[in-house]
Design a protein that fits this description.
Distance between the termini: 59 Å
Largest sheet: 8 strands, mixed
Number of helices: 14
Helix content: 25-40%
Structural class: alpha/beta
Order of helices and strands: HEHEEHHEEEEHEHHEHEEEHHEEEHHHEH
CATH topology of the largest domain: Alkaline Phosphatase, subunit A
Strand order of the largest sheet: 5-4-8-1-9-10-2-11
CATH class of the largest domain: Alpha Beta
Shape: globular
Radius of gyration: 22 Å
Oligomer: single chain
CATH superfamily of the largest domain: Alkaline Phosphatase, subunit A
Number of domains: 2
CATH architecture of the largest domain: 3-Layer(aba) Sandwich
Strand content: 5-15%
Length: 542
């Protein structure tokens, strides 16, 4: 009888999504997670069984691109536009900076609310907070528990930034800081709050839940990487202490993913859900931002336009996917999630005008050819860097940090073995098995092999001297960007330079602003607040 029920469930879920009630949408964002930090990409060093379970039973996204740093990537996710079209292309927003994602932009939760969704943000915002009108609950989210700047300490929830520091963590209440959450590990807060939202959700209304983690972003200089000591001790086999601590942070992130998926199942929401797991940018490796991520074997780090900075770890899961348990090779950009999710929710994407994102639901679900043939990775005329991919060709022009972070960084973590049983026994794996959607062990190994990028440094290759001239790569054959083909294919180089120039002709100027001294938390009882709504002489009490 149970076997028959499982068959009937799978048949039902294979039906066209438009015949179902609107799906719940759960968007889980990791912060600064590297390509090689998820174990379904081939690393045996730090197991991520819950994230892996989503990738194996859904889609592992192999050609998925994000922006190289936090604010631009989140802006693209929310608006469906490249950051050059919203003024968000350069760097991040600081807590004392009087700017935000332009209010003229309608964003993802606002579109979903029009389809009847209840919308919740838990965790990081980082799209402007100097005035109330820029905060999440004025931009489509019904609730927000979390922080508004770029990073926080995982325990005391302070942000040391540009020579000052302040608290930055609250619920949507009149209080400017959540005293009851002080000292509670941030990942645990996000997990508990997400479970509360799931358990209290009225199932007659579709749910949009965005869990935007602090992990695995580094925190403050006094201890950049923090996790519970008993978790860190489980990774004593990792000899590099910073990478060992990073493993603890990542393990807590993976645990959170498992608990959220398990809660969706136990509360009857999982069978009508779409889950996206995504990093916001590439990983900060080997001390970049005082962190210890890994993009192996890809080149570069966070805030560079090499593949290690922009090729994102991501997975898409849903019973509504017609062709599941595969590695999706469609080229996909973070700006695509807006029209893709809107379409999956039954919305008419013809309402979107002048966006860069493409509705990829059909292509991803049915494994058909994607309409996306090019990806603009970014144009930052302040840094003097730009990159674009068209078909198999990638052009990189200029670089950041004067080339300091343009190499290849580990660790690889290919040593040892992979324990498939961890995936089956993880909370997410068990929840998905209850729906009859987990592939068998042989299939999992095949999917993991197909998801793993393997590059051998060529015996003889043409070096890219990016500070002297633009470089060209065949990114399908050379995802590790070893061999510069600019001299071999000058006609392709010129074609992509022209493409980049055409993109730049449509760009709006970056909207970065100098820091406002009034925004310094020292004037506001050591809190990052919406300072633009107050006179600096006002008394703001904790």
């Amino acid at each position: 009888m149970l076997f028959l029920s499982a068959i009937l469930f799978v048949v039902t879920c294979s039906a066209d999504i438009n015949t179902q009630k609107r799906p719940n949408i759960i968007l889980i964002i990791a912060d600064d997670l590297g390509w090689n930090d998820v174990s379904y990409h081939g690393s045996n060093q730090i197991p991520t069984p819950n994230i892996d379970a989503l990738a194996y039973s859904g889609l592992a996204l192999k050609n998925y691109y994000v922006l190289p740093i936090c604010t631009p990537s989140r802006a693209a996710l929310m608006t469906g536009k490249y950051p050059i079209h919203t003024g968000m292309q350069h760097g991040v927003i600081y807590g004392a900076e009087p700017r935000g994602l332009p209010l003229s932009e309608k964003i993802l939760p606002q579109y979903l609310k029009e389809l009847g969704y209840k919308t919740h943000l838990i965790g990081k915002w980082h799209l402007g907070s100097y005035k109330k009108e820029y905060l999440p609950y004025n931009r489509g989210f019904d609730t927000h528990t979390g922080f508004s700047t770029g990073k926080i300490d995982m325990y005391d929830h302070t942000n040391v930034e540009r020579g000052s520091w302040g608290f930055d963590f609250k619920r949507d209440t009149d209080a400017l800081v959540s005293h009851d959450l002080f000292g509670v590990y941030a990942t645990d807060i996000y997990t508990d709050e997400a479970i509360k939202v799931i358990k209290s959700h009225n199932k007659t209304q579709p749910l949009f839940l965005m869990v935007a983690h602090s992990a695995v972003h580094s925190g403050n200089p006094y201890e950049p990487i923090r996790a519970p000591e008993d978790i860190i001790e489980k990774f004593s086999y990792i000899k590099d202490r910073q990478r060992q601590k990073f493993a603890g942070v990542l393990a807590k992130l993976d645990e959170s993913v498992g608990k959220v998926v398990a809660s969706l199942q136990s509360d009857g929401l999982l069978q009508n859900s779409i889950i996206i797991f995504s990093t916001d940018n590439g990983g900060p490796a080997e001390g970049f931002n005082s962190n210890a991520a890994s993009n192996y074997p890809l080149r570069g780090v966070k805030n560079t336009l090499w593949e290690g900075g922009v090729r994102g770890a991501g997975a898409l899961w849903s019973p509504f996917l017609a062709n599941k348990s595969r590695v999706a090779t469609q080229r996909l950009h973070i700006s695509d999630w807006l029209p893709t999710l809107y379409a999956a929710a039954g919305g008419n994407t013809s309402i979107f005008e002048n966006i860069d994102g493409i509705d990829q639901w059909e292509a991803l679900s049915k494994n058909t050819e994607s309409e996306r043939t090019s990806v603009l990775h970014n144009i930052d005329d302040i840094w003097g860097s730009a990159a674009v991919t068209v078909d198999q060709w990638k052009l990189v022009k200029g670089t950041n940090y004067n080339g300091k972070w343009d190499s290849w960084y580990g660790p690889g973590g290919r040593e040892g073995s992979y324990d498939v049983e961890l995936v089956y026994n993880a909370p997410a794996g068990r929840a998905i098995q209850e729906l009859g959607l987990m592939p068998d062990r042989k299939k999992i190994q095949e999917l993991r092999d197909a998801s793993t990028i393997k590059c051998k440094e060529p015996v003889s290759s043409v070096e890219c001297k990016i500070l002297e001239a633009p470089c060209l790569f065949n990114i399908d054959e050379d995802p590790c960007e070893y061999t510069n083909l600019a001299d071999k294919h000058p006609e392709v180089l010129q074609r992509l330079l022209k493409e980049l120039s055409q993109f730049n002709s449509t760009a709006v100027p970056p909207n970065n602003k100098p820091l406002d001294p009034s925004g310094d938390p020292k004037f506001w009882s050591r809190m990052f607040i919406n300072f633009g709504d107050y006179e600096r002489t006002a008394t703001i009490e904790l």
